[in-house]
Amino acid sequence: MIQAVILLGAPGAGKGTLAEGLKRSADFIHVSTGDMLREQVKAGRPLGLRAKAYMDQGELVPDDLIMQIIAERLDGGPAAARYLFDGFPRTTEQARGLDALLAARHGGIRKVFLLEASRATLVARLAGRRVCQQCAAVYHLRNIPPRQADVCDQCGGPLRQRPDDTEATVLNRLEVFRQQTEGLIAYYAARGLLARIDAGQQRDQALADIINLLPVATPP
Ligand SMILES: [Zn+2]
Asked: Closest Cα to residue 187, out of 56, 44, 119, 90?
């Protein structure tokens, strides 16, 4: 039986780091739609090439194509496993699609973790981020400062802010996320699947909170 756990969180909430931590402490198959799309494109698979046509034009990959890629991923994996979805679903439509995919494989969603932090915290995390232009090492002005301002500790390369991480862009990304996920949050809350996690606290503590609330894995 396929059991799914979903991580839902705004940009800056720490989804990626928490997903890595969860994978280390529990047995999960990690599904990131972004990674899957990139792999499909790189491997030149038919679904990947169709998705690339949209991405090249700066358009969102349509839901039905994403659903097919996820179906392929589920069918390529073990029949009984725990899956961790990160960054998907993003809309209520996608959530219904995922329910149908799982139901057709005798599976279901066990828990949805909503990573919550104040807007001020999310903005501070993202706007303070600096990335090395040479080796892509990530720093943070306050949390992980480089030894010398604007210079990478590891390779001496210049540190820059990504255009996506300026305060104005971050505020816009947060607003888009809020509008996109409002319905999704209500959808899962109504089914008693939603658990709210304080993502403004230390990452280790947020991870411990998630692990405490993880449903016990049902033996196959
Ligand atoms: Zn560097």
From this structure: 90
